[in-house]
Amino acid sequence: MNLNHIKSSTLLEIDNLSLSFQMYKGFVEQQQLEVISNLSVTVHSGEILAIVGSSGSGKSLLAHAILGILPENATIKGTLRYKDRILTSSYQEELRGEKLALVPQSVSYLDPLMKISGQVIGHKDKSKRKLALKNIFKRLELEEKTENMFPFQLSGGMARRVLVATAVIGDAELIIADEPTPGMQTDQALEALAIFRKLADEGKGIILITHDIDLALNFADNVAIFYAGTTLEITPPKDFLDGEHALRHPYSKALYRAMPQNGFTPLAGLQPYAGTITKGCPFAPRCAECMEQCKKEIPPMRKLRDGYVRCYYAT
Amino acid sequence: MRVTKSIQTTLKYIIRMLTLLFAVSVIAFTLVKLSPVDPIQQYILSTGAVSPEQREELEEYWGIDEPPVKQFINWFSALLHGDMGTSLLYRRPVLDLIREKFLNTLALMICAWVFSGIIGFSLGCAMGVSKDKLCDRILKRICLFLCSVPTFWLGLVLLLIFSVWLGLFPIGFSSPIGMMNSDVSIWQQIHHLILPALSLSLMSFANVALHTRQKLIDVLESDYVLFAKARGEGRFTIVKRHGIRNILLPALTLQFASFAELFGGSVLAENVFSYPGLGSAVSAAGLNSDVPLLLGITLFSAVFVFTGNLIANILYGVIDPKIKEDYEIQNTSHNSDGHTVSENDNNE
C-alpha cells in the first residue's frame, strides 16, 4: 500500500444519520427522543475530522453509534459505511477493537482493579500485543513502571496517554477520540493532540470530538460544527482563522464572534433540547437571517467553496 | 516501615477487640442483672426443696447480696484468669461446653456459609447478566421470597417435607438417638447436618445473590464496561474480565461480615432441629437462667463476629489495590473500617 493510496481512501461515510431513544413519557405513553438528526460526515484516512459542538449536542452518542455500543433503546436511521461496506452490527462487532478504536474521555473508562498492562493489551492477540506494548509506551513517553500501575495511580496526562495506547496497540485504522482534552493543561492538551496528528500523518483516520474549538483548529484537517444533533457546517480550519466572512453558516459566524480572541460576543438564546427539535433548521429560532422556508424544513447539506453547509442563504 | 505499619495495624485491632469485649461484658452483665433471671432459683429447682435459711446461705455464698459493681468485678476478674464459671444447667465448666458445642455449630455454619456463598454468588451473577429477562425475574422473586421468610419457618417446612413426609432425613439431633458418640460415623453426622445447614444457607444465599446481582448490574453499566464493549469484548469476556474482578471484593466482604446473621440464624435453626450446638445452648441457657453459660456464649459470639469482620477488613487490604497502597505507601492512619462490628443480641 503506498502512502498516496492511504491518503485518498475514504474510511467512514455517515449519510443522513438519525438517532433516537425510546423513552417513557409518564408511565404508559412512549415517545421517541431524537438526539441526532440528518447527520452527514465523511472521514478519510490520514485526516483529522474535528467534531465541535457544545455539551448536549449529541457528540458522544455519535461515537457510540459508529462503534455500535448504543444502549438497547436507541434506534438508528440512515446509513453508516466503513470502507464502502455498510456498517451492520455484525460488521461493527468485527471491527471493534481491531480497525475501529475509541479513545474515551477519562480514566473512569479503565477497569479500576486491573493493571494498566492488561488493559492496554486487551483480550485479543495477547502475546503479539505484549511485545508491542513496550514500543508503544516508549513512543507515548510512558514510563515502563506504568504497566504495573492501577488506574487510580495515574496522573491526568498519563491516563490520557494510556487511553491513546489502547487504541494504537490494536493497529486501528479509524480512531474516535471522545473529548480527549478536558481537564488538561494547555501544554498537556497540545501534547495529546500532537499524538493524534502524528497518528493521522501515519495514515489513520481520526475523529476528534471536542468542545475546545481553538485546539481543534490547530490540529484538524476539517472541522464539523455540530448543533442540536446535526452538522451545520463542515469547514477547513483555515476559514475559522481567516475570519467571519470566510465561514458559511450563521451559527459558525456567531461561534466565531463568541470566541475570546474575536470579541467574546455571546449569542442570545439556547441550543434546543433533544426532543424539542422541530422539523425546520434547528438554528432557526436564533438566526437573524431566518426565513419562512427555514422553519418548514431543514436545509440539505450542500457544497460551498471548500466546505459544506446546511443553509439556504449561506454564501 | 512496612513492618511497623503492620504492627501498628495489628495493635489497633487488638485494642479494638479488647474494648469491644469489655463493653459487651458490661452490657451483657447489666442486662442479666436487670432481667428477672434468678440463678439461685434455677439452682434450687434442680436440687430439690431448700429452707429459706439455706437459700440465704446460698445467696451469701454466691455473693448475690453484694452490690452489682462488686459482682461484676468478681466475675470479670475470674474471666481474666480464664475462668468463665460453671454452667448451672450442664454442671460443667462453661469454657469446655462452649468448645464442645461450638464444634457442632461450626460444622453447621461452615456448610451453610460455603453453600450460601457459592450458590448465592453464582446465582447473583446469572441474574445480573440476564437482567430483566425471564430467568432473572423468576430467580429474583424466589430470592425475595426466601429473604422475607423466617429461618425457623423454613426449617419447619423442610423438616415436614423431608423428614416427616419423605423420611429422607432424621428429624433432629446431631447423631442417631440412643447411640454412643464414639459409634457415630461421619456419614451419620453429615446426614444429620444436611437439613439444618440447608435451612440456614437458604436464608442467607438469597441475600448474597441479590447483592451480587445489583453489584454486577452496576459494573455492567459502568464506563469501563462500555469501553470494553468498544474494544470488541463480548458479553462473556466482559463478565469474566471485568465483572467477576469487580464484584468479588464486595461479595467477599459481605460473606465475612455475615457471621453475625449466621450466628443469629443458627440459634433458630438449631432449636428447630434440636441440633446440639451453641445456638440451642444459648437459648437453653436463657430459658433456664444459666447466667454463666449465657454470658460466656455472649462473649464468645462477640469474638466470633468480630473475627469475621476483621477477616473482611484484612482481605480488603490484601485484594483491593487502592487500600493496599494506603497500607503500604501512605503513612496516615487511614480508617478502612467501613463495617461496624455488630454484636449479636442473642437471647437477652
TrEMBL record, chain A:
Protein species of origin:
Anaerosporobacter mobilis DSM 15930
Reactions listed under catalytic activity: Ni(2+)(out) + ATP + H2O = Ni(2+)(in) + ADP + phosphate + H(+)
Concerning SMART domains, the annotation shows: AAA
Localization: Cell membrane
Q: How does it sit in the membrane?
A: Peripheral membrane protein
Q: What class of enzyme is it?
A: translocase
Q: Where is the ABC transporter domain?
A: 12-253
This protein's GO cellular component annotations are: plasma membrane
Question: Its domain of life?
Answer: Bacteria
| Name of the molecule in the record | Nickel import system ATP-binding protein NikD
Describe the subunit structure.
Answer: The complex is composed of two ATP-binding proteins (NikD and NikE), two transmembrane proteins (NikB and NikC) and a solute-binding protein (NikA).
Keyword vocabulary terms for this entry: ATP-binding, Cell membrane, Ion transport, Membrane, Nickel, Nickel transport, Nucleotide-binding, Translocase, Transport
Automatic annotation (TrEMBL), chain B:
* Organism of derivation: Anaerosporobacter mobilis DSM 15930
CDD domains (alphabetical): TM_PBP2
Pfam families from the xrefs?
A: BPD_transp_1, BPD_transp_1_N
Q: Tell me the ranges covered by the ABC transmembrane type-1 domain, including all copies.
A: 102-316
| Record bears the keyword Transmembrane | yes
Q: Which family does it belong to?
A: Belongs to the binding-protein-dependent transport system permease family.
Q: Per UniProt, which keywords does this protein have?
A: Cell membrane, Membrane, Transmembrane, Transmembrane helix, Transport
How is this protein named in the record? Peptide/nickel transport system permease protein
One GO CC annotation? plasma membrane
UniProt-listed Gene3D superfamilies: MetI-like
Which positions, given as ranges, span the membrane?
Answer: 106-130, 142-169, 189-210, 247-273, 293-316
GO BP terms: namely:
transmembrane transport
Alphabetical list of PANTHER family matching this protein: DIPEPTIDE TRANSPORT SYSTEM PERMEASE PROTEIN DPPB-RELATED
Q: Which InterPro entries match?
A: BPD_transp_1_N, MetI-like, MetI-like_sf
Q: Where in the cell is it found?
A: Cell membrane
Protein topology in the membrane: Multi-pass membrane protein
Tell whether Cell membrane is among the UniProt keywords: yes
